[in-house]
Amino acid sequence: MKVTKLGALAVGAALVLSACGPGATTAPGSAGGGGSKGTLKIAIDLPLQGSDKQSSDPMINGIKLAVKEASAASTAGTDFGGYALTVDPILDDALNGTHDPQTGAKNMQTAVADPNIVALIGPLNSSVAKAEIPITNEAGLLQCSPANTNEGLTKPEFGALDIRKAHPDKINYVRVVTTDDKQGPAAAQFIIQVLKKTKVYVIDDTETFGKGIADNFVKEFQAEGGTVVARDGAPKTTSDYTPLLTAAKPKGPEAVYFGGVTGTGGGIIRKQRAQVGIGDIPYVGPDGIQDGTVETSGTFLNIAGAAAKGSYSSLAAIGDFPAKKDFDAKYTAEYNLAPTGYSATGYACAQVVLAALKAVLKTAPSDMAALREAVRASAVNPATNYDTILGTIHFDANGDTSQLIVSFYKAPDPLKGDWVFDSQVDFGAKK
Amino acid sequence: MTTPTAAASPRVAGPIRLGRNARIAVASVVFLAVFYAFIGPQQFANALTLGAIYALIALGYTMVYGIIELINFAHGDVFMTGSFVSMTLLTRIILPVTGLTAPIRDIVPLLLVLLLVFALTMPIMGLIGVTIERFAYRPLRNAPRVAPLITAIGVSFILQNLALIIFGPASVNTPQLIAPELSVNIADATVPYINIFIFVLAIFLMVALNQFVGRTRLGRAMRSTAQDREAAQLMGVDLNLTIAITFFIGSALAGAAGVVWGLYLGSVKWDLGFNGGLKAFTAAVLGGIGNTTGATLGGFVIGFIEVGAASKGFSRWSEAIVFAALIIVLVFRPAGILGQQLGERA
User: Fold this and answer.
1) Residue B23 lies in a domain
2) Residue B315's domain spans which residues?
3) How many structural domains is chain B composed of?
4) Residue B257: CATH number of its domain
């Protein structure tokens, strides 16, 4: 009993400390725009360690670019009611090198306690979002994810009401990418229509994301007339996939679909397939295997090595958007790096937040709490259309984007650099 | 091939009756035949390879338990460390210095590089094992049984975190010296050379261990220490040296397992030791902990069960099936397949 009390005290003290931390260290006017009234903060929460960092960095760059542009365009902060904008704090939801839901939840406690934070962008992983949304929902803090695809985060039929329990009708979480119930099926359409293969071997990592997306894939693949020759699940502790692949080989698969991420076996399976002698058929996986260049240690392309040839990964967002050329040029000019698919989604999330801020700040808010609430209410309003870099979008009653496009990227050939955009499937066009 | 059980038991864990030995040999052959029929030749080759690796790791568990009755939970991480040591040796020293690139396709340089990487990794891991024993277990030799168990878990975490910090959280590629696509047809199966290499090497190391424990002075010292520590000491056996050598050999074998793991699967990861160690520990218990022949047998049994489950579409259940088998064996033979009954132990 004593221990529990002490623990509670310690947690409380930590909360107070962390709540004070960011507020105390804010440098006024740290971003451009030269606002006179003070600084509004757009927070980021993404995993900044391990292979997850490969996905997070392009998003952070995209967000910073959007905020920088908006600040520069707003003379003396006039677009934003005289406030300056800053991207701060950038919270890390990783622990010991990989994303961690509890760390994410702790970060949300920090964020909601800082009154100057008007919105938060992140996280990368659905499991983290699941732990974060209850906290931001209760506080009414707008959260925009550039990457989460799990349908359970928003859709009531997948249990989202349990997550936004505090205010089920006051949506605070939106995303600019579509969901796994689109991403998986889109991969099925891609394999049948673009790759023209009808027999597939499906393997998943037995985790929420991996198995979920593989289930969705299988349903659509069979509905489109394809055959699933075998279906396996191997937990992430598996190191030797050769028995599974050996068993699948005689069933004659023409393609392999993997539900999971690089860290749960994505790259290793691809590599071992060559060993078993089915290395020359296409391998398709979700956004979980699109995690960086060949040269970066620990990415799918790096682990699979020479075997990566013929691999495809999807991203639950548009890949070929109208202003892509301009965006790529200004991104490269800013960072001297090539943008990834996630650069644009990060940028788009920031655009949504900025547009909502702009709309709200036409009238001066009474206090920070009112501003936060107004930004949230404005952003999630289904009637508001946003001109983002991805296209014109709005959010539905659950906070999901109206743009149902899934794009597919191909492993580079020759094996150098990052995934290359291949084609995209518009799921909205079908239904 | 002959089953590993056909070899004479290296440990004097009480006289083993010939009749029982023969029964076990027959049971093993029947088990192998049933499995061969069940999973087919290709998967049989996979199972022998995986089983050989588990067996190499399991030997270290069982030797240490046999001599000081400690379940060395750090042993799985010694295996993991071995895989990283060999990866580092290959990518940082051996390949750059010789100017070779993996896979090596000429037989002579290939054999030389293989010899070199084993000749370096095994002693390095042996020394690491001896160091662990010296600092984490020896001071606690007369402490309550649970104390060294906790330090073992501590050492396990230290090794994991070191690997995590030095090599990062993602899988790290390691050179596959033997080209994985090279194979030979044996009895309807396409068996890669790497699988054959691993199996032959494992059997070689196990026979060498058998000969060492059974035929040499030091081996005799190990067996006598296992039987009765105090009596052995009275007879002039250097206890510290004997225990150190046990750790050296066990860790060197885990190091060898680490090398072949990298050669076989081409990537290593910081948390490899947990699962590999757990399976090998299960193998040691299944075979009868304290008995080296049992550890070998247990390693192959676990390999067969795991591959069998995966090949029949029960991969989601493979861990449950492995441990269900363990429970069933322990219910009927509490000391494991080849283990002596506890009552015989002093």
Assistant:
1) no
2) 39-344
3) 1
4) 1.10.3470
Read off the pLDDT of residues A1-24 as tens digits, 9 standing for 90 and up.
Answer: 444 444 444 444 444 444 443 433
Distance of residue A376 Cα from the nearest chain B Cα, in angstroms: 37
Across chain A, what does the average pLDDT equal?
A: 87
- Ranges of residues in chain B whose predicted pLDDT is under 70: 1-18, 340-346
Q: Give which of A89, A51, A108, A286 is closest to A185, Cα–Cα.
A: A286
Residue B82 falls inside a structural domain: yes
Asked, for residue B14, whether it belongs to a domain, the answer is no
* Token couple for A259: 């539900």
pLDDT digits (tens, 9 = 90+) for A361-391: 988 888 899 999 999 999 999 999 999 999 9
Say if the ipTM goes beyond 0.85.
no
The chain-wide mean pLDDT, for chain B, equals 88
What does the pLDDT average to over A195-199? 95
Burial label, A181 (beta-carbon count in 10 A; 0-12, 13-18, 19+): buried
Structural domain contains residue B198:
yes
Residue A324: which residues within 8 A CB-CB, separation 6 or more? A344
Q: How far is B186 from chain A (nearest CA, A)?
A: 15
> Omega before A123 cis (within 30°)?
yes
Q: With contacts defined as CB-CB under 8 Å, which chain B residues touch A277?
A: 181, 190
CB–CB contacts below 8 A, A to B: 103
Query: What 8-state DSSP symbol labels residue B317?
Result: G
- Give per-residue pLDDT as tens, B2-37: 334 444 444 545 454 557 778 778 888 888 888 888
Structural domains of chain A, with CATH: 32-179+323-400 (3.40.50.2300), 180-315+406-430 (3.40.50.2300)
Residue of B nearest to A242 (CA): B46
* Cβ-based interface (< 8 Å): residues of B facing A: 42-43, 46-47, 50, 164, 168-173, 180-181, 190, 192, 261, 264-267, 269, 271-272, 274-276, 306-307, 310-313, 315-316, 318-319
Cα separation, A345 vs A65, in Å, equals 12
